[in-house]
């Protein structure tokens, strides 16, 4: 696996290249791979911090860190995505660890809420999230809400 360069920026500091790469990766995974027609550009990105993992000038992973009060009452990590070419390398775990660390750095030790696809429950539980809702459908995909109580 190539070395990953991690960058965190607010929306208004993203370069056109970074923004394009982020939206393209999200479209590749959420729309094409998961065969889900939905409007990814939901007017929340502009309020978020964006965590991006780059390898050899290719965006391989990203999240958006959503301040409290925008998606949920709690701070949230959303649009968690990794490139199909980088899966199985630990990039998703590293992405979530860096995202959680960045939330703590920027906003302190507060609960972090996510809307997770149900099939990823065990992955998120292994990071410390616990399920807090029943299964619900979002864009025709089973999801659950989960919370992390950071402790470091």
Write the layout of secondary structure elements.
Elements: E1 5-10, H1 16-33, E2 49-55, E3 58-66, E4 75-82, H2 91-107, E5 112-117, H3 121-127, E6 130-131, E7 136-138, E8 141-148
Parallel strand pairs: 4-5
Antiparallel strand pairs: 1-2, 2-3, 3-4, 5-8, 6-8, 7-8
Question: How does this structure look, described?
Answer:
There is one protein chain. The chain is α+β, with helices and mostly antiparallel strands and 152 residues long. It has one domain (5-148): Gcn5-related N-acetyltransferase (GNAT) (Aminopeptidase, 3-Layer(aba) Sandwich), CATH 3.40.630.30. It has three helices and eight strands. Strands 1, 2, 3, 4, 5, 6, 7 and 8 form an eight-stranded mixed β-sheet that branches. The model has no long low-confidence stretch (mean pLDDT 95).
Short description:
The chain has 152 residues and is an alpha+beta fold. It contains three helices and eight strands; from the N terminus they run E-H-E-E-E-H-E-H-E-E-E.
Task: Report strand %.
Answer: 25-35%
Class from secondary-structure proportions: alpha+beta
Residue runs with pLDDT of under 50 for 5 or more positions: none
Strand tally is: 8
CATH class: Alpha Beta
* Count of alpha and pi helical runs: 3
Cα gyration radius (Å): 15 Å
Overall average residue pLDDT: 95
Distance between the termini: 29 Å
**Overall 3D shape:** globular
CATH superfamily: Gcn5-related N-acetyltransferase (GNAT)
What profile does the largest beta sheet have? 8 strands, mixed
Please indicate the count of domains: 1
Sequence of secondary-structure elements: EHEEEHEHEEE
Helix content: 25-40%
């Amino acid at each position: 696996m190539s070395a990953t360069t991690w960058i965190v920026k607010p929306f208004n500091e993203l370069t056109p290249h970074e923004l394009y790469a982020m939206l393209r990766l999200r479209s590749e995974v959420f729309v094409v791979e998961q065969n889900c027609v939905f409007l990814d550009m939901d007017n929340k990105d502009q309020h978020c911090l964006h965590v991006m993992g780059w390898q050899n000038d290719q965006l391989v992973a990203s999240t958006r860190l959503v301040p409290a009060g925008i998606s949920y009452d709690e701070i949230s990590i959303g649009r968690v995505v990794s490139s199909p070419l980088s899966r199985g390398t630990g990039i998703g775990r590293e992405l979530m660890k860096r995202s959680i660390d960045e939330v703590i750095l920027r906003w302190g030790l507060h609960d972090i809420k996510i809307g997770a696809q149900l099939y990823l429950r065990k992955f998120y539980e292994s990071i410390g999230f616990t399920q807090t809702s029943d299964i619900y459908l979002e864009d025709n995909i089973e999801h659950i809400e989960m919370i992390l109580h950071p402790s470091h």
